[in-house]
Amino acid sequence: MLSVVDLEKTFPAKGNQERVPVLNGVSLSVEKGEFFTLLGPSGCGKTTILRCIAGLETPDSGQITVAGTPLFSSVKNVNVPANRRGLGMVFQSYAIWPHMDVAENVAFPLKARPRNSRLSKKDMDRKVDEALSKVELSHVKRHRATDLSGGQQQRLALARALVMESPLTLFDEPLSNLDAKLRDGMRFELKRLQRELQITAIYVTHDQVEALAMSTTIAVFKVGSLEQIGRPRDIYETPASLFVADFIGTSNFISGKVTGQEGTGVFRVETAVGEVLAMVTSDRPLPAGTEVTVSVRPQDIGMVKEPAAVRGVGRWPGTVRAREYLGEYVDHFVDVDGTNIRVRTGARTSVGPDTEVVLSLEPGYSTLLPQP
Amino acid sequence: MSLSELVPPQTPVDETERGRGHRGLRRPQFSSEFLVAGVVVVVVAFLSLVPVIYLLAGTFFPRGSFTLEVFREAYSSDLLLDMVKNSLIYSVGSTVLATVVGTGLAYLVARTDVPMKSLAYAAALVPMIIPGVLHTIAWIFLGSPQIGAVNKLLEPVLGPGFFNIFSMGGMIFVEGIHMAPLTFLLMFAAFKNMDPALEEAALMSGSKPISVFFRVTLPLVKPALALSTLILFIRAFASFEVPALLGQSSGIWVFTSRIYFALSGYPADYGTAGAYSVGMLTILAAFTVWQARLNKNAKSYQTISGKGFRPSTVPLRGFRRVAGAGVLVYFVITSLLPVLMLVYSSLLGYYAPPSLSAFGRMEFTNYVDLFDSPKTVSAFTNSILLAVGSATIIMLLTAVIAWLVVRGRVRGGAVLNGLAMVPIGIPGLILGVAMLFFYLRVPLPIYGTLLILLISYVTVFLPFGLSYATSAMFQISAQLEESAKVSGASWFYLFRRVTLPLLMPGLVAGWTFIVLVAVRELGASLLLYSPGDEVLSVVIWQQWSEGRMGQLSALGVVMIAMLALLVAGARKLGANVGVQSP
User: Fold this and answer.
1) Number of domains in chain A
2) Which residue, A242, A274, A305, sits at the end of a domain?
3) Which of A190, A358, B343, B363 could form a cystine bridge with A309, CB 3.0-4.6 A?
4) Which residues lie closer than 8 Å to B99 by C-beta, 6 or more apart?
């Protein structure tokens, strides 16, 4: 449905310096019906990619093709203007026009079409009604757009994108302006609509929870290049790099050395806190002695009170130094031979400082990251 | 960055150049956008540069070859030193008066519990509504040694003719109080937008309220104060009405009155007028550049933070009544007295200072005559036509310029902005001189028609329109336009259906402001009008020189009423007229 090949873009720097690169040869491929999320910290270029697809920014080089039609190609010198790309887009600020009512906002893309491809008045009204009913705004059709609540404005922006019946719908952090409670509801709603209407969605966000909850595929970006691409579960459970493991969720990073292999993709690693069995995502051979980092999610570590415990594989005695009560869970900071390990337990468990404990880790619950 | 960057590249980009930078591809895709940009640049360049270029050519090359003869003649006059000295004393004096009065009042109204604040707001609108020429004449009725009402009233105490408005002091006073409301507007915003936490922190650190004012408040508004002072100085230096009406008869000449005098004689002395105009333009250009730099600094010094707050109010306690009296006196002097005086004299067949017998002779003949005279009726039509026409043209033009400057992806927006701002350093009178030079050389058939006045008005008021349009443009989120673009709207459709409607409140405010200043315009009109086709301000000027005080007062009262209605209507529509006067 969407194919992006070797997209490059630089921005002018202040003063007489070199231009600053924002995209270094990004390539993506999105299938029909996917909910494809571009995820990354601010300044990673995810919004720039979206705006390049929309036609609001022009890349320096590369190719963008939607449903077989080239929209941009530096080789063929193609650059379709934004207003002829026919892609629906939902903006971060919703960009609802305050001087039009709800129905006029939705009708705008239909009215803006060139004269020869414009629909009849009746068809236009029908399409506007359809779009409004999909997002359940039919009852406020003649209201002033600015009188709507935040959530309603959000849905109106979606209806305006839907009415275009575009092969691809672009979302630029559409939930970031809503308050937390409403955001949860809209997240669910948006996902339901996307699945039901079989929209192909390209979604930009910096919120990992949003990305994990809604996407079929996530592409994680780090300063202008693609870091990892995969299903939400793959990204979370087997991050491909230190950056991904660190950006998505919380992780303990423990450095160590490979001591041997225990089967396909499972290695024995000697670390500062003790021995562990860790999974690896890449096919790269890891001979004994290779320097690696092991990433362990805090909630994957078990903890029991046990004074003077004995060390073993995936079994580390330590002392609780501090704890943080966060309502839904408790984070304990455990000192294991001078290394600080974060252990997340249920809210009911709470172990006070200076208690001797033993940490346990199931084989395969930790990911091995090659040293950068 | 050059002007050529505002128009699309004509030649296709070859493969090698596209390899790096992709200048060809980065170009906006809409040819209509470029077409509009091109037209706007040409129009603005013509308006801003052509008359000035002809003025320079006409003075430096009076007969085709370079000579400084014109300047030598004009500047070797014995009167020169006197004129420079007078210009300086007059401009500095009226600036100081307006700054002290306006700033003090702004502080009282913005930050203290002074009573009768509404009078100060009302007085802030008055100079926009009372044309300078009427304001000056009203003060002649009040302060003339022979016929001045104030002098007559105080004669038993101070003796005859105590106050002489026809003096340097009188000139400074009249110009100063006419400009004070502008200082008030500029400084009011500065005091109002100040974060009260900055002062509260000083109070909490143990400062006395009075030392908080001098050590925190005043330094914080210093950039605004400097800017306001400079704007006023430029205005005073370029002002024409007060020096012409008050200074000329007592031999106090300044640049503007001398330029007008040189042109009103027979034969008109273009050389002298041109040489003095070039001198004024040079000085004004320097000050305008300085002003632009101060403006930039003032922005970086802004004490406005994002969150809304209400500046704390300082209680005046025992001083409250005195301050209130000050506000009242200010209102009476700047607004009430001049208007009352005009109404009074409009009801008299021939002017006499207020007395019982004078009140007995009051009648409405002047108002009746007004509508019987074909000249005044045509002046009304002309003024309205020109004001509405120039305001409409300017706002349409500046809406596009503002879009290109703020939003346009074509580099060179700054150049266009600078070009459109050039006339801010050109007073109406000087533009009139420049236009005369232009049409002396280029005999287009528009000389002697209303069209030449229309072009002049559009040029002189272009910067005002632009600052309204630009600030309105900055209020519109770019996403509102981007969403229209991805919705499939072409540039024209987007501009017409999204940008223009959203800009409308700002454009209406700018339009109203320009209608006001255009109706008041005197300098350019006086030099460029053709007999039989006068505008209102010119008719008032003529009636003054013919001594027809009653008729000019009646005309003035109707004019003021008309402009007051316009302002009231615009404010009702929500336009922020008066707060943003550049």
Assistant:
1) 2
2) A242
3) A358
4) B183, B225, B228, B229, B232
CB under 8 Å to A132, separation ≥6 — which residues? Answer: A102, A103, A106, A138, A141, A159
CA distance A294 to A64: 38
Chain B residues touching residue A97 (CB < 8 angstroms): 480, 483-484, 498, 502
Whether B62 contacts B70, CB under 8 Å: yes
Largest Cα–Cα distance of chain B, in whole Å? 93
Indicate if A63 and A161 belong to the same structural domain: yes
Say whether both A187 and A271 belong to one domain: no
- Dihedral over Cα of B459, B464, B467, B469: its sign: negative
- Contact assignment for A58 to B21 by CB distance below 8 Å: no
Show Cβ contacts of residue A293 under 8 Å, excluding neighbours closer than 6 positions. Answer: A242, A253, A254, A255, A256, A368, A369, A370, A371
The Cα of B150 is separated from the nearest Cα of chain A by a number of Å equal to 54
For residues A162 and A132, what is the distance between their CA atoms, to the nearest angstrom?
9
- Stretch 486-505 of chain B: residues touching chain A, C-beta under 8 Å: 486-490, 493-494, 497-498, 501-502
How far does Cα A277 stand from its chain's mean position?
A: 29
- Residue showing tokens 């004096």: B93
Q: What is the number of other CB atoms lying within 10 angstroms of the CB of residue A235?
A: 28
Q: What is the pLDDT of residues B403-422, one digit of tens each?
A: 988 887 666 777 888 888 88
Distance CA B456, CA B463 (A): 13
State residue B283 phi and psi, 5-degree precision. Answer: -65, -45
* AA identity, residue A327: G
Split at pLDDT 50, 70, 90, the class of B290 is confident
pLDDT recorded at residue B4:
27
Q: From chain A, pick out residues whose CB is under 8 angstroms from the CB of B497.
A: 108, 112
Coil, helix or strand at residue A331: strand
Same domain, A220 and A257: no
Please state, for a pLDDT cut of 70, what percent of chain A lies above it. 98
- Chain B residue numbers with beta carbons less than 8 Å from the beta carbon of A80 are 29
Verify whether the Cβ–Cβ distance A95 to B483 is below 8 Å: yes
> Strands A169-172 and A88-90, how do they pair?
parallel
> Minimal CA–CA distance to B437: which of B47, B71, B57?
B57
Same domain, A238 and A350: no
Tokens of B55: 């003025």
A274 and A213 together in one domain = no
**Predicted local confidence at residue B325, as pLDDT:** 93
Q: Are A249 and A209 in contact (CB under 8 A)?
A: no
A344: domain CATH number?
Answer: 2.40.50.140
Phi-psi region of A310 (alpha: psi -120 to 50; beta: other; left: phi over 0): beta
> What number is the average pLDDT over the span B47-74?
86
Instruction: Clarify whether residues A94 and A196 are in a common domain.
Output: yes
Q: Domain residues for A295?
A: 250-370
- Segment B100-141, tens digit of pLDDT: 999 999 999 988 888 888 888 888 888 778 999 999 999 999
CATH number, domain with residue A31: 3.40.50.300
Cα separation, B73 vs B76, in Å, equals 6
Q: Of A242, A267, A287, which residue is a domain's last?
A: A242
Instruction: List the single best residue of A20, A48, A106, A108 to mutate versus B (max B Cβ within 10 A).
Output: A108
Q: Sign of the C-alpha dihedral, residues B140, B141, B142, B143?
A: positive
Interface residue of A97, A113, A127, A173 to substitute, partner B, most B CBs within 10 Å: A97
A81–B489: do the CB atoms touch at under 8 Å? Answer: no
Contact B316, B98 (CB under 8 A): no
Same domain flag for A206 and A265: no
